[in-house]
Amino acid sequence: MEKKLVYFTITLLLISLMAVSVVSAGWFDFLKPTGRLTSQLTNVSVGVSGINPVTVTVDGIGAQNPTENGITYVPATVHVSDPDGVNDVDDSSVNIAFTRSGEATRSDSACDWVSDESSTSAVFLCNVSMQYYDLNTADWSAVAKAKDKGNLTEISSSPVAFTYNLLQAMTIAPSAISWGILSTGAVNQSATNDPTTVTNTGNFNGTIKVTGLNLLGATTPADMITADKFKVDPADLCGGTALVNASSTEITGTSANRGLGGTEELYYCIPSVPSVPSQTYSTAAGGSWTVGY
Fold this sequence. Notes:
Elements: H1 2-25, E1 55-58, E2 71-81, E3 89-99, E4 106-108, E5 112-116, E6 121-131, E7 137-148, E8 155-156, E9 160-164, E10 170-173, E11 187-190, E12 196-200, E13 209-212, E14 215-217, E15 224-225, E16 231-233, E17 241-242, E18 247-250, E19 263-272, E20 281-282, E21 290-292
Antiparallel strand pairs: 1-2, 2-6, 3-4, 3-7, 5-6, 7-8, 7-9, 10-12, 11-19, 12-19, 13-18, 13-21, 14-15, 14-20, 16-17, 16-19
C-alpha cells in the first residue's frame, strides 16, 4: 500500500510539472508557424530585344543660305525603322553628319525624337550648325546613323545631297583713305592710313575688286585726279594694279581668304602726283569708291 502511494505521488508530481510547462508555453502554441516555409512565390522578369537591324532614311534638304558672320542651323528629318518594333530603336544613338571633301564635318550627335509614325518607325529632328564660311557648293552630303537595342550595329542612311548657297559679304576698316597734302610731281606716295583691312564675313572665295572714281576738285570740279593715277596692292610696295574710272577692277594678288577670321590688306599708292591746280580732290562730288568681290 505504501509503495502504491509513493508511485501515485510521483506520477502526480510529473503530471503537475508537465502542466506547468504547457501553460508557460501557451496552450495554442502548436498552432503557430514554425518559420520553416516549404514554398514561396518569386517574381520573374526578362527583357528581350530583337536582332533585326534598323533602317535609316533622311528626307531631302533644301538649299541653305549662310548667315553673315554667323551660324545657319540646318534642319534634317530622319526616319528610323525596326521590324522588331519602334521600342527597339535606340533613340540616343540617332545622329547625322554633313560632309564635303576638303571641308570640316558639321554634325548633330544627338538628334531629337519627334514622334512614332507607326509601330515600327520613329521620326527624329536633327539641327546641324553650318558656319558662314563653309563652302558654297551643291554637293554637301548628309548621312544619318542609328542603332537598335538588340542588334547594336550602327546603320547608315544613303547620302542626301544639298546645296549651301553663296554669300558675298565683307567689312572694311578704315572706311576712308587719305593722303593729306601732296606736292605735284612727288613719287610713290602711299596713303597715310594704310592698310585697309578687308574681312570676309561670307563664303566667297576669290579676288578683291576696287571700283575707283575720278577725284573732283572741291573748288573747281572740272579739275580732277583721274582714277588711273592710283594703284592698289596687297603689299606695301607702292605698286600693284592701276584703277580704272567707274570700273570694277580685280586687284592682282588679293584673296577673299574664306575662313574663320579671313582678312586681306589693301595698300593705296599714287606713283606720281599729277600736275593739277592746288585744291582738295575727293569723292565728295563724284561718289565714293567701292571695295567688293
